[in-house]
Structure formats: structure tokens, C-alpha cells
Amino acid sequence: MKHLRYIIIVTLFVNIVGCDDYLDHVNPNNLSENALGQSESDLSLLLNGCYDGMQNNFTNAYRFLDCFSEVGYGETVITEGGGTPQTNTYLDYWSRSYMLIARCNELLAKIDDIESPDDKIITIESEAKFLRALAYYYLTVLYKDTPLIISKQSFDDRFVSKNSQADIKAQINSDLEYAVLHLPVNQVYPKATKGAALALKARVHLYFSEWNDVLTLTKAIIDFKKYELFSDYSKLFLEESEENNESIFAVAFESGMGEGESFSGSWPKQPNQMGIRPLSNYADAFYCTDGLLISKSPLYNPVEFYNNRDPRYEVSILRKGEIWSNGMPYEAGTSVTGYSIEKYCRITTLYRTDGPVDFMILRYADVLLMRAEALVETNIIDEEVFQLIDQVRSRVGMPNVEDVEGINLSQAEMRELIRHERLVELGLEGGLRWFDIKRWNIVEEVYNSITFHYRPYLGEKTLYWPIPQVEIDNNPNLEQHDFWN
Amino acid sequence: MKLSTFLLLFTLINISAETFSQKFSFEVKEATIKDLLAKIEGNSDYKFLYRSDLIDVNKQITININDENVESILGRIFDPGNFVYKIFDDNLIVISKKIASQQQSVTGKVTDSSTGEALAGVNVTIEGTLKGTITDANGSFILQRPETGATISFSFIGYVTQKITYNNEDVIDIKLTQDVQALEEVIVVGYGTQKKVNLTGSVANVDFESISNRPSTNSVSALAGSIPGLTIIQQSGQPGNDLASINIRGIGSINAGVAPLIIIDGVTSEVSDFANLSPYEVKEISVLKDAASSAIYGSRAANGVILVTTKNGLESDTKINFNAYWGLQEATVLPKLVDSWDFAELQNEARTNAGLSPFFTDEQIELMKNNDPTDGFSNTNWANEILRVSPIQNYNISISTGNEKLSVYTGLNYYNQEGILLNSNSDRYNLRSKFELKLNEHIKLGLNLSGVSKKSHQSAVSLGGADYSIMGTVYGTPNAVPVYYNNGNYFVMFNDVPGYQRIYNPIMQAEFGYNNGANKGFVSTFTVEINWKKLKFNSLISYNYNDALTKNWEPRLISINDAGETVWDTNYAILTQQFSNTHILQVENYLSYSTKFVDNHAFSILAGHTFLDNKYSYFQAYGENFPSNSLQVLDASSADSQRAYGQDSYYSLQSLFGRINYDYKSKYLFEINIRYDGSSRFAKDNRYGVFPSFSAGWRVSEEKFLEGISILNNLKIRASWGVLGNQDIGDNYAYTSVYSTLTSYLINGQYTSGASITDMANDKICWESTNSLNLGLDLALLNKLEFTFDYFIRNTENMLITLPIPITLGDLNPPYQNIGKIQNKGWELSGIYRDNADKLIYSLNFSLSQVKNKAIDLNNQEWYPTNQIIKEGESLYSWYGYLTDGIFQNQEEIDASAKQTPAALSGDIKYKDISGIDGVPDGKIDSYDRTIIGKSFPEFSYGFGGSLNYRNFDFNIFFQGISQVDINDFSRINQTGVGGNPKNWSVEWLNRWTSENPSDKYPRLDFNRTVNQLFSDYWLKNGSYLRLKNMEVGYSFARNILNRISVDNMRLYFGGQNLLTFTKVKHFDPERSMSQVRSEFYPQLRIYQIGLNMTF
């Protein structure tokens, strides 16, 4: 048996010969495509993915939108006239919005295949439609005509072309109508509710100056009696006040679990600026406590300019000398405009880029002012208008309109009043002012009023953003806007 | 070495020619030799020394001496054939028996067997040892005397190597016959070895011995320039993180890997495994460049194969090798930046030009000029603060031993590199042990064990290649910034410069925490070889384990200025630890058979199976908020900040392979290779691929019609064609679409998992295939000159590409598709000339290659990586941007030119209007005016060098270069003055455009004006360079000195790397990887070294 050991050596090796099973592996890290079905729990997973997609938009990007109105200074490449289709800002908003849309479409495609969906599934469907409408609203306001994609796309469908703003608007309305119809009035925070759908729909109609729709929708929200103004404006934008009755729809954030935002953190001497600084146009717009402009009010002191001002001034803006984190006074030197953002900022350096503060996309004060504006624009200047504005003003202790201006105000005067109120109430909240001045057709006028820096008005190139060059490059069916060519 | 031998050698060296005057006359009868010697001692000053056990001094002799000197007497007493004696100056006479090593050396002469002409430069070596010499101009040689029975080998280019068994001769005369069979060199090929003359593929071979002394920081970069068609680019000089990139014959793929397959001693390995070998443990490498030579590795061979063979034990004698070097490193080139006061002026100008208030006051600029950092402004040279001259060292010892049954090699290497950048270093230990046991005449078992442990250390801030990396800030942070406040804190904020952003202090970054890496690798291979008649069976099983552990510590750092204000606070410390490991199991069995029919027909066949299983696992742990900077463990972090991540990944490969060789009279050569590969990276239906190759060779010089041409030693024409595969897309599961579950949201304050598709997948994907055609010619002339020429076309089809997809699909990562075709076409030429003149032996070599790559078909798509384009008909990764036409000098010129947006100002870069939406110039500058403006891949690469030996001196020099390449000097883009990033200016910006200085070279500075930053040919530079890559001067000590200290060989050398560079690139080193878009990388190194090679 001398050779036995050699035979063993040889067979030991030869026997380790493979078979095809060796090559079958399953991805251990992710759910495979067919792993998710149409059960409510699977659909909820996908819905959470949609909400997550919305987070990307609001973690900091919408802060920059305030740079496009007189609220803030920043994004100078674009606001000083140097934007090109290759400018990254244009790409950021585009890709984040379409990411959210695709996730919603994926979920909606799964629901479409269900023969008789139950109420819970219909709620999920409505939430997805709400989120899709939200994304398209921002897209069309920013880019005007963009591809309208409302079904799950396969790889072969990828070369889409542009749709008109009218088509997009119709889709937003149809999605929101469905959401209004099917969303429950109450949902676990921060999921979309019927009120959120109504408020978003009102905002869409407001953008297109469809006043009667705004009136109907805002009335419905008010009639819920669910929402009310939060008593303390100075605490409204703090983490501790989240889930308040004024908040109609908010994006949720939390520190320390990969779900944070980056807009609220602070450095030792100043808040995170995210590349935007408030302009004096905005700062000077805040009335004195007597309800008069600083140019008119006897209470105004150019040296101690911050005294006797609308309390929203201190909440929104950090001015030189104001105490900030570590008990250190804010030095205006760190801001070219002399001001920093304070609204939504935390006086702490902890979790600077991983903040916990929820961002309110829709809140009740906005609804009240939308209604007031719609009333004025339809020339119904009655007591309700005054009462709507006064609700917002009195919350911060500002005098009633009647007490300052009297009651015999023209439509134009009321319009000015409301527009001003929207600026001081809603400034620094995701570019609402930018959307406002666009729909009011006063962008040129506003830009001309900005003296801090060169702010050219380039017509439609200022009003509407170009389709990102990379999209034009990679999609033969997509054409750049004429006015950008 | 026995002491007696040593003494003997010692004595024999000092043969003197002195004549002996003293004469003797006497007669002895029947006396012993001992008595006779005593008698001489009694009558003179002579003393005799001998070993009575070796010399029979009691032998009776009778002798009559008449006026003879001692030499003559001894000559009569002893038989000169058996005894030798030596008379020293002090009249001591040593007598010893003539044994094999009695005479230290053997002499001889080598001549051509047919002409009788003396052959110079013939290698004479004692096999199994490192002893050897080379014949001089007269063909004669002196060789250290080998032991009886040793084999002496005589080899010379163009001649048949002759081996003789040493039989104790003093003089050996050898006649070498011209090798009509040409070179007998055997080189390693896939699953075997082959005679070089019989190769039909394109295989290059490097004897690592010749380059192992290079002070290269890893084994891969040591190879740079030595093989035509092999492009090796060192990516940076960063210790422990300087992996060089390797390409063979261009870029063969866009998305899949472009690095060749590395096989170390039969084991599938990574480029990093090769890099981590000690250069001293590598014996040789073979580079398989074409399909013929590499098709046997099938699906992984599309980018070529590098076979690495490590050193073996000896079958006799024990040899110890010791190699050491120590060197100093410095940066090859540093940026020349403006002085701080000039910086301030430029910065102010950029502000003023943008309509903004200047940052610096005149008083502050004055403060910069006095260069007193205590006043808050300085003129700090950051490069000098951060970079230093630092040591590099390597020590290697190896032992080879064995006998007919067992051979053993073991080598230990220690390498240590102190980084030239503050707070960076790396070291590495290698240990390899190899055993080979001949069980009997049929069976051979082998065990090959190797281990490597590598550590690297650096600051927690990335060292180069980004805006806020350390090198980024060395180039960018203004030199007006002092290093420290007067209180010793890091200076991070100007005292009174309103609006000036916080400063990234390079010293603070370099001293900020640490990132420590530790890699360990272990490979264990067991092999069996069974020979039975003409059959040979080989079996290999190997287990390869690698792991990497990193610890990244970012301490809480607070900086307080002299006014007591906290100007910088990271708020909390962060600790991240990562661990990953890879297990690879490889099993291989193959059988080969070779035979000859009727003498003229040689035939061999090989067939085998192999299986590879790869498991990768990774996890990471994270924590922050530590109570103190001195607690640097995760346990100390706050519980709510702790997080963990991890992933697994598997992949397997199973293959059958085979080869058939046939030749007729070694004149007509044919070879077929085939491999059938299956990979787990593809869906079941597309999993297997067949990769064949065919090749043929014709040794024209063997033909009768060339017989009489004696200058022609070898002429061979080769041709090959084959298909190779590539599956190296890094993603083991690319064919399946998956939901990412990382898309979570907070519902009711609770972290709630979500799911969403983040990647688009394509389950139809399969192998990339590369058709490779190679035509080659080998020529050897005059026994001195050799040329190899190859022409090749590599067409890669069905490329695994992730073409960019519209974002409207949902901002998804694009799927792989098998699309398109790219081509690499080129040629390689290399040559070597060896000759000698008297005692001077020299050789010259060169290599030159051209590779042109082109996208042939991309499915009508264009692809835009940052600032680059991949477009049909164009070179891959071509630079893509605007063409420029100088600088606008005045408004008239602006008005006369195409409209720029925003409207151009004097001093702006003038872009050319070359097209528009309709394909014709439309009077405005927009995205349609972008075009291909340069090449990112060098078209030519070349190297040349030589070696020289004169007596005990040797000299080696090697130059390497590339040309026809453009590099993107990105860092200068910040120098247009646009705010945001840290910036400083290099000196030529003193000549920027101003109304007083209407420069046509450098645009105006403007804090807000990004239009001058558009990617254009203005930012491209000719990236060609030629550099003195390596130089080495050595001195080998004379044997007679070495023998006294029991040393066989000792060589001391001085060397250097990157000593000189000729290039148009300024401020940074031109050698950088293609993917490197930033200029501020960790500097490349110039190294000066002193080293020692010893053999015992």
C-alpha cells in the first residue's frame, strides 16, 4: 500500500471540483426587487422612502431660495447674472425633485395593480400623490416647463420630453384633488393630512392667481377648527414646538440617526449661514411696534435700530451685537450684509450639520394670509380681511390694521399691506417670498430696489431656471427653454 | 565555512615573489621529513608550520642537498602535485596538502567553437550559488574555485549555454557553440513555463534582481518604465497610500477595471498584494500582453496578466542574503507662491473689481511686510512648515538552503518610510517561507507561506486632492496667516478683516488627530506536482486572507485668539473605526502531456479546472462626544451618538482551461488556448463565456535560405488573435435591481425604515469581450543586439458601461449595459545592446510605445465625466470645454466678439464662438461652444537607460517619460479670485490683467466672477515629461578583502529616484494618475539612497 498515500494526496485535490451551484449568490445587503409586494407594510416601506426623498429637498437647499428675493444675499453666481445651464444650483433642485417623483411613481405603480385597495392603501396612495404634487409644484415654479412623469419608468422610457406648465398644473391639481378627497383629517405626525393637501392646493392656486379656488380651499381648512396660530412666534421655529397646531405640513428631522438637517446648527459666534445672509431690504421692512415703517415711525432710532421693532424682527434676523451661542455677541463682521439668519436656528453648536428641527412647509398663518390676499384680489375688502391679518399681527403683539391705517383702505393699499405682512411673517421660510414676487410680477422692481449688490433682472432668465445642461446632454428629446438658448 | 579553510585562503592570497637567498648544503639518510625540517629550522630563521594529520612528516627520506635554497629543498621533498607551501616575509613557511580549494581560483578561456575567436562578456556562474564572473576582452576569466562536483555554467547571448561538472581543474577551456536554436531562456507563462524562443504571444519578462534596489515605495512602482506597453503611474508620495496604477496597452474599458490580473506564485491576487511584496522576495515577473499569452486566464485577462514568481530555496549550500538601504526623501517640486503682501493686494483687487470693499487695509499690508507673526499678519511659507526632508529605509534578509530532497527559502523584510508631510509615515513587514519537498522521483510537494503587515499613519484630515485637504490648503491658505496666535493656539481667523472667512490652517490640519491604518495579509499555498513519463499533474490549493483596520480620530479642537475669543471649536470629538476582510479560496488542478513524433513534431497539451471563491466583509463603528481628548475608544463616546454599519459581498468564479502547442522543427510554432469561465456576477443565463486564442510563430532564421547569414542570431515573426473577457465592475450584484432600505423617515418621532429603488439594474449584462490582435517580431543580431517589436489592436466590445441616464428617471444610479466598442491600437518597440570593451561591460536599452484609444461605438451616446467627454470617434476621457483666444483687452474687442454671458469685461478670458444650436457660430458663447480641447491619456510612453560595469564599479541609469498628454491644472482655477475656497496665488499671477498691465496671459481677478472659471483650454497644460527615474552607482568589494570576513559578495551603492524632471508643468509634479483632477496631491518624492547588498 505504499502508493496509497499518494493516491490520497491526489484525490484530495481533484475532488474539490466545483459545480454550478457555486456561482449562485444572493445579494446579502439589500432587498431584491421582487422582495416587496403589495401588502400594506411593504407599501408603507416605499412610502417612507418617498418621505425620505422629500427630506433631501429641505435639509438646506430651500434656504437658498430666499437669495432670489430681497430677503437674502447669496447664490451670487445666479443672482448677479452669471448663471448658466451648467450652474450646479439648477441641477440640485432638479435632481432632488425628480428623485421624489420617481419614488412616488414606483409606489403608485404597485398600488395601481391592486384590484380592490382598502382604505389604508388608499391613504398611502393619497400621501404619495400629495408628495408628487409637492415636487411638481416646486419644479414648475422654478423651471416652468419640465417633463411630466406620472408612471413608473422603465429604462426604455428614459428619453422624456418637456410638458407645458399648464399640463403640470393640471396634474398637480388632479393629484391634490385625490389627496383632499382621500386623506384623513388626522394622521400620525408628520404624515400628510387632508389639511395639508388643501393648503398645498391653495398655494398652487394662489401661485396662478386663481382666487376663488384659494377662497374655497382656505375656508375648508379654517372650518376644520383643527389649526390655530401658535401662541409664541419666538418659539414657533424651535425643536420644542414641533407638531404644534399651526403646523399643517412639515418635514421631520432628527439628530444622530442619519436623519438630520443642516440649516439649524450654529458656530460659536453665528448660526450656520448656508451661504445666505439677510439683506437690509428685508431687515428694514419690519415695522416699528406702532405698526409703521421705520421711515415713518417716531419710535425708530437709527442708532438702536433694533429697539421698538416688530418682534418678528428679532426672531428672524441676527443683528450685530445680539447674543448668540456661548454667550458671545454676534459680530456683524462675519456677514457681508451685517445680518445673519436666526429663524429656524438653534443657539447651540451641537449637531451643527445634523440638526433635529422640523421644517414647516405649510403653516396656518400662511393659510390666513392666502385667504386675505384672495379676498382682496377679488375685491372683497370686508371685516374678514382685517380679521385675518389682525390674527397674524396680534399673535406677535403688533397693532391691528384698523388702529394704524384706519378702515377705509383701497384695494391697492390692502394689497400692499398683505404683501408686506407675508414678507415679515414668512420670510426665510423656504423662498416663499421668491415665489410671491414672481406671481405678483414685481421681480424687476424688487431687484432694482436692492442696492447692496448688483442684482440684474434678466427677464425670463431670472424668472425661470434653465434645464440643467447635463439633462440636455443626456436626453436627446429634452430641449432647453427658448429664452435660455 | 571551516576555520582552516579560512586560514588557508588567508594565507594563499599573499603569495609573494621574494627570492630566498639562504642556501643549504647537507645530506640526510633515512631521516623523517620532520627531522629534516627541524634541521633547516635549526640552521636558519625559517619556521615550518603544517598539520601533521594531513602531511605525512614521519615519512623516511634520503636526500643530498648541495647549495640549494629552501624552495628547491621543499620541491624535492614534497610532490608539487600534492603539496603546496608558502614562505612569508617573517620566514614562516606553511606547508599544506593540495586540496580542492587549495588554489583560490580557477582560470580559463572561452572561445567560439567554430571560429576559435575569444568571447568577451560570457557569463560564468557556479550554479546554485551567486558566485560568478564575466569573461574579459580576451575571453578569459578568473572564477572563485567551486567545490568538486559543482556545475559551472557558461552562458552568452546567441550561444548554447554550456554546463560542466567541475572536476578540480585549475584551468578550464570552453568552446561555446553558436546557438542556432537561439535563446534558451525559459520564462513563466500561464500554468507553466515556456522557452522564450517558442513563444508565439507577446510576453515580457523582468528579472527583479536588477530593480530590487530601487528605492521604490512598493514593488509595483519599481517596475515603472521597464516594459514597453506597461504604464505605471505612481499616484502620490504618501506613505502607505501610494499604490501605483498599472495599465497594459492602454485603457481597455470604461467602467470595468483596467488593471491587469495579478497572479503571484499561481495565486490570484490584487495589485495591492503585488505592491506589498518586498522587491527582494520577487524573482521575476512575466507580463502577458496579448490574447495568445493571456487567454488561458480568460474572463479576467482582458487587461493583460502579470505573473509574479517569488524566490525559491536552493538545492545545495546555504546562502544568506542581506540587503539594506537608507535614504532621504523630499518633494520633487513645490509651488512658487506670491508673498503675503502681494496676496493681500491681489485679494483686494479681486474684491474691488467685484465692487466690494477690500479685505485688507494698507496698514495690515505693511504689517505683512515686516513679517512679524505676533502682529497678526505674517509671510508664512506653508510648504516649508508642512513638508520636510525625511528618511526611508529598508532591511531585508533571506536564507536559502536545501538538499536534493528539500529546499527552503525564507525571507524577512522591514520597510519604513517617514512621510515628507508632517505627521505621516508607514512601515511594512514581509515574511515569506517556501518549502519544496521531493517525495520521490515522481512527486513534488510545495508549501508557500507569506505574510505581510503594513501600517500607515496620517492626520485625520485628508492629505491631498481636495479644497480643504492639507495639500489643498498648503497651496491655498494665504501666507499672510501666521501659524499660531501669540498664545500658541492655531491661527484660524484674521483679527480685523471683516467678512474674511475662517482660515484652514495647514499645520492645524496636519496635527489634527490621526488616521491609522493597519493591513495584514496571509497567503498559504500548497502544491503537488506529479510527473509520470510524459504526463504531469499539477494541483494547487491556496487560501488568501487580507484585512484592513483603520482608526480615524478627530479630537475636539478649540482655538482661542489673543483676545480670548473662541474662534474655532469642533465641539466634540469623533472616532470612526473600520474593519474589512477578504477571504479567497482558490483550487486548481491541471494535467499536461508533451511528446515528440518523429523528432520533428513536438506536441503538448494542457487541460485543467479552477475554482475561486471570494468573500468580503466590512463593518464600521462610529461614536462622538468624548469626555476628554485623551479617551480615544468607542466605549467613551456618548451612547446616543454610536452607530454601526456593515456589508458583506461574495463572488465566485469557476473555469475550465486548456492549451495545445505544436511545433515543427522549432521552426513553425502554433498554440491554441481556451478558457470557459463562469462568474457569479452575472445572471444564470449569461454566466458562462468562452475565451479562445490562436497564435503562430515562424522562426525565419531557422530557414535554409538564411543559413549563411552569421550576423543573424534570431528572427521570429509572431501573430496572435484571441478574445478575452472582463467582469471587473466592482459590483458583485449588478444584475439585480434592489431596494435600498437606507431611505428611512421619522414617523411619530420614531426612526422608521423606508425602501426605495436607488439603482437601475439590467439583468442582461454579461462579459465584456476584448478581441486582441498582435503581430510581433523578434530579432537578435551580432550576438549583441536584440529587438522586439509588437503591433496590436485591442477592440473591447459589449462594454459594461453605465451610461449616464436622465435624472428624470429619479436621480438613480445608472445600470450597467453591454454597449459599445472601444479600441486601443498601438505598437511597442524595445531593444537592448550589450557589449564590452576591455574591462568595461555595458548595455543600453530602450523602450517606446504608442497607444491610441478611441471610442468606436457608444450607442450614439455621449458621456460627460467632469470636464471630460467620452464620444464616438474620440479618444476616451478627452478634455471637453471651451476654446479660448487670450484675454479681452478693451471694450472694442468685447463688442467685436461673440457675446459672453454675463457680459464680458476687459480682462476676462475670451472664449471662442465655434458653434451654436444650429451647428454654426451664432455670435454668443454657450454650451454649444464646448469642444474637445485635449487628451487625458498619454499617447507615447518611453524609457531608456543603460548599465556599465568596470572592475568593481557598476552604474545604472534609467529615464522615463510620457508625451502627448494634457493635464488639467485645476488648482489655478481658484486663482481667478472667486470667493469661497481658500486661495493663494502662484507668482505668475502678479502679471494678471489690470488696466495698467494689460496682460494677455492671466485674466482679471474678480471675487464674484465665475465666468473665467469655465473649463477651457486655458486650464490645460502640456503634461509631457521626461524624468531621470532611477540612478544607481555601486562598488563591489574585492573578494580578497571579503573572504577575511566570510563574505562572498558585498556591494555598496548610492542611488536616487526622480532626480531630474524635464517638463513644462509648474508648481506640481507632472506624474499623476489620469483620474487625478486636482494638482494639490501629496507631493511625489525625490529620493537619495545609500545601500548595501551582501551575500554570505
Describe the fold and architecture.
The complex is a heterodimer of chains A (485) and B (1096). Chain A is mainly α and 485 residues long. Chain A has helices spanning 4-14, 40-58, 76-79, 88-112, 119-143, 165-182, 194-207, 211-224, 280-283, 311-316, 364-377, 383-395, 401-405, 411-426, 432-439, 443-449, 460-463, 469-474; strands spanning 31-32, 72-74, 247-251, 276-278, 317-319, 339-341, 359-363. In chain A, the strands form 3 sheets. In chain A, strands 2-4 form a two-stranded antiparallel sheet. A two-stranded antiparallel ribbon of chain A has the order 3-7. Chain A has a two-stranded antiparallel ribbon with strand order 5-6. In chain A, helix 5 (119-143) packs parallel to helix 7 (194-207) and helix 11 runs antiparallel to helix 14. The longest helix of chain A has 25 residues, at 88-112. The mean pLDDT of chain A is 89. Chain B has 1096 residues and is mostly beta strands. Chain B contains 12 helices and 56 strands. In chain B, the strands form 14 sheets. Chain B has a 22-stranded antiparallel beta barrel. The longest helix of chain B has 14 residues, at 340-353. Chain B is globular. Residues 1-20 of chain B have low confidence and may be disordered. Classes of the chains: A mainly alpha (485), B mainly beta (1096). At the A-B interface, helix 1, strand 1, helix 2, helix 4 and helix 18 of A face strand 28, strand 30, strand 32, strand 33 and strand 37 of B. Strand 1 (31-32) of chain A pairs antiparallel with strand 37 (738-740) of chain B, so a sheet runs across the interface.
